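Sequence only, no structure available. Ideas?
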Amino acid sequence: MASLAVIATVLIISTVIKHSLVHSMLREEAIHYWDLYATSSAQPPPNTHDLRGYLITLGQSELSLPEELRGLEPGIHSIGRELVLVDDQAPGRLYLVWMGTQAERLFFWSGTMPLLLCLGALYGASYITYRFFRRLVSPMSWLARQVAQWDPREPDTSALASDQLPKEVQGEARQLAEALHGLSQRVATHVARERDFTRDASHELRTPLTVIRVASDLALAGELPPRAVRSLQRIQRSSREMEAVIDAFLILAREADIEPQSEDFDVAEIVLDEAESARDLLVGKPVDLDVVCNAKPRLHAPPRVMHVVISNLLRNACSYTDEGRIDVTVDSDQLVIRDSGIGMSSEAMLRAFEPFYRVDESRQHSTGLGLSIVYRLCQRFGWKVELESVLGQGTTATVRFVS
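Reply:
I predicted one. Tokens follow.
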């Protein structure tokens, strides 16, 4: 396309220049002839290989002219491939006809032909370069296509085995293919190990939790003092929270296209349950925890995921609020937890969802993972968590159920 544009441009320019030159030449030839005619009226009009001249003096008929020149007005005219200059002076009218064949051949051999030869040489060099670099690049392109087809969960790397590589894959490309083959095998081993660990950890962690829950149920069935009952109830709540955390971790460990077991649940019920557990963290603190349910939204997701989200947000509010109050509001489309704690600076807000980041390093009970887990779980189920905070005044966490 670029070459065609260049050729068209050059041809147009050459045509314009050619006509401009011919126009100038015809006018100069006419001036030169009239100068000669003024010296001798017997001076004949020009008659060369490319130029024909005709003179019609005053009173002479135009019948002596070729038929195509009769009736032309003064000026330059184009007749076929010929250019005609009609020039009126006092002695008469001069007709100069430019045949143009020799000039066109000159333009062709001096302009168009060198251009075509240059373009041909350029095309030839480009083709040779393409053929040369194709042999160098094609193995890398084939390797890139093979890697792009891998499934990260179960990469099929048999095509990159040494005995399966095409013959054109040699040198550095073969070394890279063999290195990728070894890497993919290690990735496959790692993926399998992680999958086995997730499955085994789920089973092994649930077993002692089940024992704890059953034992606490049996203990509560008997006659116990109030203090022991409260302790056993805390053990039961902690075991339920641990089960919920295990479920959440397993969900985060699974692939995004694997849907977890979900059901419809009432958000308000989970908020009230988690608020009751959070009050144990406020014992001895001048902090009031109040829950207002303006609506009872129902969501379709694993209920334990919502337990983990609300539990972490409430634990953060309780941990970083030394006095004042914590207000929890449930609306039809969102959950808002507002506290009067230490708050966060604008710099801390930017890092709030980073794993292991803690606003106050002196509070050793915090691991810095709570908000990170909340953020990842909300992303997983299409919810949106937002934070607003003022240093020294408190923090507001909002979970929107429709992102």
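The chain has a mean pLDDT of 82.
Hope that gets you unstuck.
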